[in-house]
Write a structure and sequence with these properties.
mainly alpha; two-stranded antiparallel ribbon; 2 strands; 3% strand
């Protein structure tokens, strides 16, 4: 993917996030090119029509190469921490994970795509692949985290259940952050993730 093409796609993400009340058709060739700092004709080096750009934009936003959404609370969980430090360790991971989630430039665009599911079969298939990949990565990371700490899910919960709950907390509190404040949303996310893991997991059976 050329640098110019990437800049044009990133401009589309930025514009759509600003114009979330408008339709994808608001992303005209001239508007996208201007946002990226290029002449309108530059747009047509890569796409013949606006419809082609929109499809490419959606693929770009849901591409695994541009994704940080699946890291969850497991990101950075390396080393061999002491079991007595499980709670503060999870809290620190949750704080870092929520900050990365909030700073993800693709976040608002992905939220909008999920909210408007049902547009076309191709878009729905891309969303299904994206959500499936995010949940697999989050589940795998959570499995590794619990294994490192000698913990496992307690019935009736499973690791995928917990990963979905963590993902839902991140999405919900991210949407709430502009209204309750960034710090309040981050603090609540940390506490809820800690409580969730303490309630739904326990020491591994001998």
């Amino acid at each position: 993917m050329t640098d110019t093409r990437v800049e044009l796609l990133q401009a589309g993400v930025m514009l759509y996030s600003r114009l979330r009340s408008s339709h994808l058709q608001s992303l005209t060739a001239g508007r996208v090119a201007a946002a990226a700092g290029f002449h309108r004709q530059t747009f047509y080096r890569y796409w013949d029509t606006q419809a082609e750009y929109v499809q490419d934009l959606i693929r770009f936003a849901l591409d695994g190469a541009n994704d940080a959404a699946g890291e969850g609370i497991s990101a950075g969980a390396d080393g061999e921490p002491e079991p007595s430090e499980f709670k503060p360790f999870v809290r620190a991971l949750a704080r870092d994970g929520f900050a990365r989630f909030r700073s993800d430039p693709m976040r608002d665009f992905r939220f909008a795509l999920i909210a408007t599911r049902g547009g076309t079969e191709e878009i729905d298939d891309l969303l299904d692949d994206f959500i499936g990949r995010v949940r697999r990565e989050a589940t795998g990371g959570l499995d590794a985290l619990l294994r490192d700490w000698g913990r496992e899910p307690t019935a009736p919960y499973t690791t995928p259940d917990i990963a979905i709950a963590v993902e839902s907390l991140a999405m919900g509190l991210s949407l709430a952050a502009p209204f309750v404040g960034e710090s309040a949303a981050a603090d609540l996310y940390e506490q809820l993730v800690v409580d969730l893991l303490l309630v739904t997991t326990g020491p591994q059976a001998p």
